[in-house]
Amino acid sequence: MEASSKENTHFFSNNTVLPVDRSSFKSESSASKEKQSCCGGIKIFLGALSFVYFAKALSGSYLKSTITQIERRFDIPSSLVGVIDGSFEIGNLLIIILVSYFGAKLHRPRIIGAGCLIMSAGTFLIAMPQFFMGRYRYERFPSTINSTVSLSPCLQDKSQTPLSALEKTQAKINAGCEKEAGSSMWIYVLLGNLLRGIGETPIQPLGIAYIDDYAVEENAALYIGCVQTMAIIGPIFGFLLGSLCAKLYVDIGFVDLDSVTISPKDVQWVGAWWLGYLIAGLISILAGIPFWFLPRHLPRPEGRKDSSTSSEHSKFITEDSKDQGTSSWQQAKLAEMAKGNSLDIIPAVILSLACLLFLLFCLADFLPSLKNLFGNPVYILYLCASIIQFNSLIGMVTYKPKYIEQQYGQTSSKTNFVIGLINIPAVAFGIFSGGLIMKRFGVGVVGAAKLSLGSSFFGYLLLLSLFAMGCGNSEVAGLTVSYHGAEPVSDHEQALFSECNSGCSCSTNDWDPICGEDGVTYVSPCLAGCRASNGTGKDTVFFNCSCVGTSESSQSSSAVVGPCQKGNECPKMFLYFLVISVITSYTLSVGGTPGYILLLRCIKPHLKSFALGIYTLAIRVLAGIPAPVYFGVAIDTTCLKWGSKRCGGRGACRLYDSSALRYVYLGLTLVLGTVSIFFSVAVLWVLRKKSSPQDETLSANGERGTCGTKSRKDNFVNSDQLIQSTYWPEKETRL
């Protein structure tokens, strides 16, 4: 009986459980549907954000590829081009604090979409001067531009030129001056790049935080890795687009290309720089469209339903709850007051007092955190090393196209093609290799410091070898060689005149190079002493050039349009330069990931966001903005021949001293890199000192740190945790 009663009891208990099983089955099915919708939504957002990263990386790299084109088109020096390049960082810094604070409280996808529209508007604004400043005018002797008036290059007296032709030419110049005197169209390029920086601001902090909030925790690292991969692919296409546009003449579609007398190898050549900006702006618009249709919130994964933040972030908040209990209570009270303000009408005085209290609270929390952060010697030393190294790298990358063009005589198209197809993939592979080495060998904090230092040391050591891989100066009469084959005097303008052209009425401001049959380039047909010409356009040939060749053959000497090519050793040197440049780019990039992990592991968990914000701010203000400017100023000092604007004043540089340019460009890069290595050595020394067996933590005050090296197992984290820490959700939001 007892056994049967037990069986009955068990039977009825099973019956009572059945409804629960059905409800749980329904909940599981609804949970699976919710999970599917969550995954679908986050994948759509991931695809849209990846496309945006591609668009912003493409437009940014395209700007780098058009540096020399912009310089020639607007007749401005390299220093001013550096200011234009740094305006992007200025625009980014103008609103990053506002976007960081208020962006997370608003509709993040739509803010990103609005940023894409602003970014595209800035990109279109950069291209606008092409449509308002008239056709591009380069310096050429009138007979080479299909002129109906036959003129002698060497104007021995003004009577050779018909008065009407001179009057018409002077009238055109005066009309151009009236239009040009009141316009500085390069300002639109600067404002457009500034606008690009403003539009790009919300993409990274809000996009990465959105993924981290709504992605399954184990997939977040993979998703962020996909986004960053697109950020590497973008510059490849940006430089390839720059290569394509540099082949096309600047006024393509507006002028007859048969009338163009210069080639892409000429220093006055300007490609269709504006065309790429129109393409990049269109891509930015398309990239921003999906964000206007994405929801403000997505269903949270099962593991995050009870938390408003990621599990890693929640862990840090829990760890610091004891120390910050009062701060949390004050924040809650302020939030309560703000909520009440939205419901009730409160006098402006009370609202102002609340804002003042909030600012005082933020300041009271900010200063101790800043003091704590700057009291960390490893962080300060690594920050100094990074600032100096980024000065070196940003300056080098900005003017690398100019250096290749001027040093090795390559066209802008070929230069951009080489950088996009060879250098950038080497950088991407180097970053990947650095992370792979850390994962494969279980590298700890001290090991990461050694790897970062080693990559910088060997990278700059390889850079040292580039000093021996340069080309000599082009032989330009009166500038690099005299008319008699000897070295010229220091005053280049006086050296442009010689006995052979003393009977000609020549101007030293002209730059219309011709190549003599003796292999020497002459600044203009007039300064070459040419007295006759035949043909038009690119086929023009000058005869009876008194300065070309020896005195015995001067009466029959000839020259053709365009400068002479550099020496025969230049193509071989350029090949060597490419090989060393690729190896150097890879070597320097290997230390990127270990250095970033070193930064993250040597600060307290609750200060990570703040430390990364200070790091990003310092890099942009102290490296991204000034480096292109002073690199440009230094490069301008190596100019041998400046162009002249139509209405007077100095234009863009026409000829550089190749040897001086090599020493200034590589020397400045190497000096900055060497100084950064000394700071990296100091970082390693402090780490080794603090990681002795007697010290359990890095902090001198006995506070909890993360740089202790008690065991490799304690220091090393798996690859997923590495990536998640590297892309901390608020790394650019809390400044």
From TrEMBL:
Catalyzed chemical reaction(s): L-thyroxine(out) = L-thyroxine(in); L-thyroxine sulfate(out) = L-thyroxine sulfate(in); 3,3',5'-triiodo-L-thyronine(out) = 3,3',5'-triiodo-L-thyronine(in)
InterPro entries referenced in this protein's UniProt entry, alphabetically: Kazal_dom, Kazal_dom_sf, MFS_dom, MFS_trans_sf, OATP
Example of a GO cellular component annotation carried by this entry: basolateral plasma membrane
Entry's localization field: Cell membrane
A single BP term in Gene Ontology: monoatomic ion transport
Membrane topology annotation: Multi-pass membrane protein
Keywords of the record: Cell membrane, Disulfide bond, Glycoprotein, Ion transport, Lipid transport, Membrane, Transmembrane, Transmembrane helix, Transport
Highest rank taxon of the organism: Eukaryota
Keyword Glycoprotein: yes
Residue numbers spanned by region Disordered: 301-324
Domain called Kazal-like: residue spans: 494-549
Basic and acidic residues compositional bias, start-end: 301-323
SUPFAM superfamilies: Kazal-type serine protease inhibitors, MFS general substrate transporter
Span of domain Major facilitator superfamily (MFS) profile: 45-691
Signal sequence bounds: none
Record-level Gene Ontology MF annotations: bile acid transmembrane transporter activity; sodium-independent organic anion transmembrane transporter activity
Main subcellular location of this protein, as a coarse class: membrane
Membrane spanning residue stretches: 83-104, 111-132, 220-250, 271-293, 345-367, 379-397, 417-437, 449-469, 573-600, 612-635, 664-687
Family: Belongs to the organo anion transporter (TC 2.A.60) family.
Name of this chain's protein: Solute carrier organic anion transporter family member
Organism: Pheucticus melanocephalus (Black-headed grosbeak)
Lineage, uppermost ranks: Eukaryota, Metazoa, Chordata, Craniata, Vertebrata
